Amino acid sequence: MKDYLDFEKPIREIEDRIEKLAGSGSSRSSVQEEIRKLKTRLAQVETELYAKLTPWQRTQIARHVQRPSVLDYVQAICRDFIELHGDRAFADDRAIVGGFARLNDRSVLVLGHQKGKTLKERVQRNFGMPNPEGYRKALRLMRLAEKFKRPILTFIDTPGAYPGIGAEERGQAEAIARNLLVMSQLRVPIISVVIGEGGSGGALALGVANRVLMLEHAIYSVISPEGCAAILWDDPAKAPDAAAALKMTASDLLELGVIDEVIPEPVGGAHRDPHVMAERLTKVLSSHLTQLEELSEQALVDTRNEKYRKMGVIAEPAPPAS
User: How far is CA 72 from the centre of its chain?
Assistant: First the structure.
């Protein structure tokens, strides 16, 4: 069953009419002609609607409950996945999943945030908000991948790192900072894909990569629109305004040089056709891996560092003429 967003009401109305006519079982030519016209109208409405989405509407799609998760993609594009657990220090954080798998003929490490689909699973996964042990688990696995010279693929989909008291007591900030440091130095190819919501340091802790890709309707920002609105205007209702100001969409970030490629989604979002989305993702990942495998270990580290050092360059104003 499809879960429609508020702005998708025109699409829902047309699809409901098509379903009702198709379910009538009538084979009359007039009924079939009406269905054909409705499908044509549906395609037109979808094209027009999704061609002019606002940043806030893209945020809603990025958070869609039916949007494919890292485990969905692993099942669709990989084989022989072996999940590994625990940080060898405190616990196994289920908000981050990781393990070795095969992508086509390549052995790779796959890591990602897992939000969960049902309410029960979302509680178990802490809504995709990792604790320090989640980032330390990810770090352990990335070091293991480097030891065995395996490329690393990370899938980002989190509102942010968990800000609870226990997480802070166990060193949340240190865990994230150490991931940033170590990922910058790993001597294997790293590709990060923002598949849904990329929130703050919780996302960046898996996002220091040679190539950063984003799905068309994903978002990536230092803070959520709601959090930004609460800070700037003390009014969460201004979240749509904050979403526009944050420049958090894939097209904005590509223009700013924060990401390297936008992967087009099926009309309506990845959840509308996960199979097609998985095929596109496989093709793009394979292409980037082929390019990165041509680089030496030192070149991988150097180009990764250069990529991030070029961000946020400030042009000094010329001194006033004397």
Answer: 13
Residue-wise pLDDT tens digits, 136-181: 999 999 999 999 999 999 999 999 999 999 999 999 999 999 999 9
Q: Cα–Cα distance between 64 and 146 in angstroms, integer?
A: 34
At residue 219, the 3 state secondary structure works out as strand
First to last CA, the chain: 71
The tokens for 32 are 């079939």
Rama region for 312: left / alpha / beta (φ>0; ψ in -120 to 50; rest): left
Q: Distance of alpha carbon 94 from its chain centroid, rounded?
A: 17
Measured CA to CA, the distance from residue 188 to residue 313 in angstroms comes to 27
Q: What is the pLDDT of residues 274-300, one digit of tens each?
A: 999 999 999 999 999 999 999 999 999
Strand partners, 98: 111
Question: Which residues does 192 contact at the CB level (< 8 Å), separation at least 6?
Answer: 153, 154, 155, 156, 206, 207, 208, 209, 211, 212, 213
pTM, two decimals, is 0.90
Q: Taking each helix axis as running N to C, give the angle between helix 29-51 and helix 9-23, from 0 to 180 degrees, rounded to the nearest 10.
A: 160
Q: Would the CA dihedral through 284, 81, 186, 309 be positive or negative? A: positive
Residue 315 CB-density burial (10 A; 0-12 exposed, 13-18 middle, 19+ buried): exposed
User: Each residue of 255-279: b (16+ CB within 10 Å) or e?
Assistant: eeebbbebbebbebbbbbbbeebbe
- List helix spans (H) across the chain: 9-23, 29-51, 55-62, 70-77, 119-124, 132-147, 165-169, 172-183, 200-204, 225-233, 239-245, 250-256, 274-292, 297-309
Place of tokens 């098509």: 18
Tell me if residue 101 falls in helix, strand or coil.
strand
Residue 82's φ and ψ, nearest 5 degrees, are -120, 110
* DSSP assignment string, 64-87: -TTS--HHHHHHHHEEEEEE----
